[in-house]
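Work Package 3 (structural annotation) set out to generate three-dimensional models for the target panel prioritized at the project kickoff. During this period the team completed the workflow that converts sequence records into discrete structure tokens, so that structures can be stored uniformly alongside our sequence database. As a representative example, we reproduce one entry of 454 residues exactly as it appears in the project archive.
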Amino acid sequence: MRHRPDRLFLLTGGVQGLAFSWGLPAMVWWVVDLRLSPFRLAVLGTALVLSILVTETPTGVVADLYSRKYSVVAAYVVMGSAMALTPVTELFGVLVIWQVLWGVGWTLQSGAATAWMTDEIAHHASHSHRSAAVMPVEPSTAGDGSGAEAGGAAGSDPSRQVDGLIVRHAVFRSVGVMVGLVAATAMGAWSVRGSMAVMGLLAIAAAGYLAVTMPEAGFESPRRRASGAPRPARTSAWKDAIALWKRGARLVRRNPSLLAVTLSATVAAGAWEANDRLSVLRLFELGLTELDGREAVLFFGATWFVMSALAIPMMTWLRRHLERSQADQRSARRDAFLLARFLTVAAAGALALALSPWFTVALIGWAVLDVAGETAYSLTEAMANRHADSSVRATVVSFVGQSQAVGEVSIGLALGTVAQFVSVPFALAIAAALFAVSAAPAAVVGWRTGGAVQ
């Protein structure tokens, strides 16, 4: 697998899903066993996203300067450590520290994994093209399958392949969530805290495997290039980091599609953070108050498993949509309108979760919100990656992640406070309205780049 960056990138999606599924026993432990208040749940979420806000761009710049591969490896070591250590104590202050550590680990891979894969695919395509130029296919063999396959590999569009891989990465993330939920549910029937620790150790083991198998032929550190130059300039890592950061900021500011993605992500992430922290509490209050911790793990494990399974056909459709589209103005317009539609559907699901007095309707609304939100997240990443230059790709993708962290910190804690002092349904209703608002920047970009697409 060492020479297949596409497969390794998909594997990182599965490991991401494993890290996400750790949230099942963690949330059940916090809500059912520790009985944390809505405000404390919001504080945990704010600690997580505040660490992402502070470290997202610096870790993206470090990946662009030194190594995307080892940034990804370090990410799962850090996240796995936080996952394994969380259940060691019930002290709330220590729980906050582990959330901060998890957030730092997330930022180490959030922009680096996609940037690593994109450069490895481009390097492989360039190498195949040069090989085909030196050793062209003989006319006598042009009719057989091997010649056609070689030509197709050499002549394929790397950008379209990358778009498809980003969405397939999300599919593998959903599969990873499903596998992780099965494991967490099985172990949670024995011990909720024990399942959290085991899943953390599995993430660390995955980091070791990636360290051995991931190549990094498509990336050369700017620091190494500067040190190997005939007349090296006296530069510092700090100055290089600032220069890369500014280039990424200019690209986001001047590109309408990137700007729309960033603005939509900022608002939607705040709404998503509130739902992420309060949806389990909402459903628990609607009809699950009689469940203990182990029973709650079984119920929510089965529910999240179904939602992850429902996301897979949506991701498959999105991958085909991106593979058919070309990187031109019309495809950018289609993608902007599609993002707006997914965010609108997420708003409808969030509203059902917030206001329905019936448990079943609220549960369906939660599922609609989850599937639409996950699909919108994947489309956001594909749009950001498509418009980012290779030299600052990890930095630009991290900009989108940082914008999400801004929304989560500024909006998530505020809605947690509303839930504490007013009501959980009222806070979730505000979150639903924010999902609808987040669709506006993407829709505006669609209109400004040529009108609605039928």
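The CA atoms of residues 52 and 133 lie 45 Å apart.
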